[in-house]
Amino acid sequence: MLLLPLALSACTQSVAPEPTPQAVTQENVTTTRSTTEQPTTSVATKEATVVQPANNAQAQSVFTQDRVMLASQGYPELVIQDVRAGTHAEVDRVVFEYSGTGLPGVIAAYNPDPRQQASGLPMEVPGNAFLEIMIQGTPMAMMSPREDLLAGGPVGVGAGHVINVVHGGVFEADTQYVIGLDQQLPFHVYVLENPTRVVVDFQR
């Protein structure tokens, strides 16, 4: 007699929506918890707080001006295929599209003095604010079929507040990009699959 409830439970399992952005690691995040006795509020000022992916797009859109880190998944070996920018109703968006296996790690932070990761030389980036993006899991030996995406320097894409994207080169398995903006804006960075994309949204 116990088989019927088990069968019903197996038939009613829900399927998680696809795709889901990776967990976002942020600094300076305020979290609030309520209990039956008294609500308490804790503020993380030094230790990073992990914000888990939610089931709806609005909750997933966590905008910040602090440093963000996304962990890689599945030992990525990725090759850049395209870099593009566009303006949408509420955001200006930059997309880095990749082919290959696994999901990249990403580190994103504003940097007032962007420099090449290997040489330390200053990078010439147009704009008044500079968001540095480090995309991990991109081996140097795996080269893009597009020659315009191999060389360092301006990529030549922009939209809205995004003036241009500058390629800082690949060192070991880390690719450096710097997004030049006309002003510093809250941003949201996440990874999508099929195809693999690193997406950076700037709040308008």
Written overview of the protein:
This protein has 204 residues and is mostly beta strands. The protein has a domain at 65-203: Sandwich (Immunoglobulin-like). It contains 2 helices and 14 strands; from the N terminus they run H-E-E-E-E-H-E-E-E-E-E-E-E-E-E-E. The strands form 3 sheets. It has an 8-stranded antiparallel β-sheet, with no helix packed on it. Strands 6-7-14-13 form a 4-stranded antiparallel β-sheet, with no helix packed on it. It has a two-stranded antiparallel sheet with strand order 2-3. Strand 13 (187-192) and strand 14 form a beta hairpin. The termini are far apart.
Q: Secondary-structure element sequence? A: HEEEEHEEEEEEEEEE
- Terminus-to-terminus distance: 59 Å
Oligomeric state of the chains present here: single chain
Share of helix, binned: under 10%
| Structural class by secondary-structure content | mainly beta
| Named CATH architecture of the domain at 65-203 | Sandwich
* Lateral arrangement of strands in the main beta sheet: 4-1-5-8-9-12-11-10
CATH-derived topology of the domain at 65-203: Immunoglobulin-like
Number of DSSP-assigned strands: 14
Strand content: over 45%
Low-pLDDT parts are 1-59
Put simply, the count of helices is: 2
Mean pLDDT: 79
Rg for CA atoms? 20 Å
Under the CATH scheme, which class of the domain at 65-203?
A: Mainly Beta
The major beta sheet can be summarized as: 8 strands, antiparallel
| Overall spatial form | globular
